[in-house]
Amino acid sequence: MKFLGGIATLVLVTGMIAGAQVASHSPTNAQDIEKPAARVNGVVLTQRDLLTQMVEMFPYSAQHGGFPKDMEPQIRRGAMDMIIFNELAYQEAKRRGMTVAPARVTSTATKFRKRFPDAQTYKQYLQLEANGSPKVMRAKIERALLIEDFLNKEVSKKARLTPAQLRKYYDNNGQKFERKETYHIQSISVIPPEGANGEALKQARRKAEDAAKQAKAAKNYEEFGLLAEKISEDDFRVNMGDHKPVGFEQLPPEIVKIAKAMKPGDVSDLVQLGSAYTIVRLVAHAPAGKIPFAEAKPKLEKELQKEKTEQVRAALGKTLRASAKIEKL
Fold first, then answer.
1. Which CATH fold would you assign to the domain 3-157?
2. pLDDT digit string (tens) for 106-148?
3. In terms of pTM, does the model score above 0.85?
4. 119-130 helix and 134-151 helix, angle to the nearest 10 degrees
């Protein structure tokens, strides 16, 4: 739980309340927003807490004029579970005697204050969120930081993967890292008008030959791509001429034959495909086989880390709920 990200969401919530820009089942005024949403070991969590979490989970709510009706029940359930989990985490951190250094609270409060454009805007926010009390706002900041510290200790650190664990997963799941041969190319194509003949075909050929000269002079992906956007007449021109990595079976045989003889960065001579004149730049060629561990590691680590974090977090939530008294109101 990153304080500056989460607490800043309250600015959006305040605006939504003021403009009643929330779905029909959400509170739309200051009176409703302070009503209880749940009790956790006797501690009341309000509709404001719930709405804040809902906005954090669906940050596009302001642009959508609220939460989509078909998604709101799911967002609400997830938000309710999250605010209960955070309150249980806070209570457990307090029970263990965990604290946050005053200097860190002050530093975080200062950073948060700087997110506002001027003193008046912050004063209005403080009035809405903390009854105008800097002391109350400081307590909110301290609570958020304490939850963050607790979750770092009980989730982030315990879910951390070692290099040996990543390597073991890679070695034991070799089939997941097999890939087909792929080619990644950029192209520039000049396409004569339908039914063109005579001088029109000659003009198209001259344009293509000039494009080929410029393409050969391109030093990198960006230069070739900008040229494609300027000159090319095929559908790939809007994306730097980039076809993205594809299997050889998805490319014309003539292009595959040429690409096989190229090195990454090479630009082909002019190739005629049907009526079109095409120039190809090879971005990369990946032969069929097992993806090397070093190449697979970043994505693998991200996926496994997310999976393990969710498992550790779920287990912690189950433990915290075991002896808690929770009422959803």
1. Triger factor/SurA peptide-binding fold (1.10.4030)
2. 999 999 999 888 999 888 888 878 889 999 999 999 999 999 9
3. no
4. 80
